[in-house]
């Protein structure tokens, strides 16, 4: 198989052996971010389709996710650091009840490499923990990730909780994750919320939103 196909296959098959050698070879051809975006994420997409259609069982999805994480960790030091920090601080979390963190961690990498201080508090985080972290770290913004349909409801509840606590105007909120849609965030959530809430389709939109929010 050609290198790109081989790497994609590794994600789909959850095959770690020889991964680093393939990544080293890919790095001689393309920048790290391009390898992630154009190849590895394609592999994860296939995993999602296979899982969704019942052709792949959960333990194998987990293996694929582990290979994806290993690959991203291996590539991270090779990424260009465009900016050294000081552009603002964001608390990032995957919402309550949700364990998916590959997307959130990519957002962390992209923002960190582009001048933001990221306080990544992990998965399954209730809004109380998110707000405590935002307070404690004097964050300028809050980012919530969630991939389950259920998580889109949690995000709505989280915004309601922020409004109830009177902190809606204090932190602009960025939302992202596969189950969210732009319409849900920009029409539904935004219409009832007095603070800033933004939808980010991917990590790069997350970055451009932060650049807009922080001016
Ligand atoms: Co799960 N899972 N999973 N899973 N999983 C999905 C999400 C699912 C769509 C698969 C499917 O059915 N086709 C489905 C959800 C269905 C639904 O809710 N309607 C699903 C399910 C059902 C489940 C379980 C319930 C399965 C079970 O237990 N029976 C379970 C849930 C457990 C829980 O959360 N309580 C579960 C578990 C798992 C694993 C642990 C095996 C593993 C996660 C490992 C990990 O993350 N450490 C896993 C995986 C890997 C997936 C799929 C296959 C891939 C997700 C992924 O990493 N994609 C996923 C299929 C899919 O998403 N279509 C699926 C790559 C990643 C880069 O994309 O996170 O979307 P993503 O991030 C993107 C953008 O969304 C955006 O930027 C990234 C790209 O640049 N983004 C942000 C994300 N967050 C952002 C935040 C921002 C800005 C942008 O600002 C704050």
Automatic annotation (TrEMBL):
Methylcob(III)alamin binds at residues 97-101, 145, 203. Coiled coil: none annotated. Residues 1-87 form the B12-binding N-terminal domain. Residues 87-215 form the B12-binding domain. Catalyzes the transfer of a methyl group from methyl-cobalamin to homocysteine, yielding enzyme-bound cob(I)alamin and methionine. Subsequently, remethylates the cofactor using methyltetrahydrofolate. Modular enzyme with four functionally distinct domains. The isolated Hcy-binding domain catalyzes methyl transfer from free methylcobalamin to homocysteine. The Hcy-binding domain in association with the pterin-binding domain catalyzes the methylation of cob(I)alamin by methyltetrahydrofolate and the methylation of homocysteine. The B12-binding domain binds the cofactor. The AdoMet activation domain binds S-adenosyl-L-methionine. Under aerobic conditions cob(I)alamin can be converted to inactive cob(II)alamin. This is Methionine synthase. The lineage of its organism: Bacteria, Bacillati, Actinomycetota, Actinomycetes, Micromonosporales.
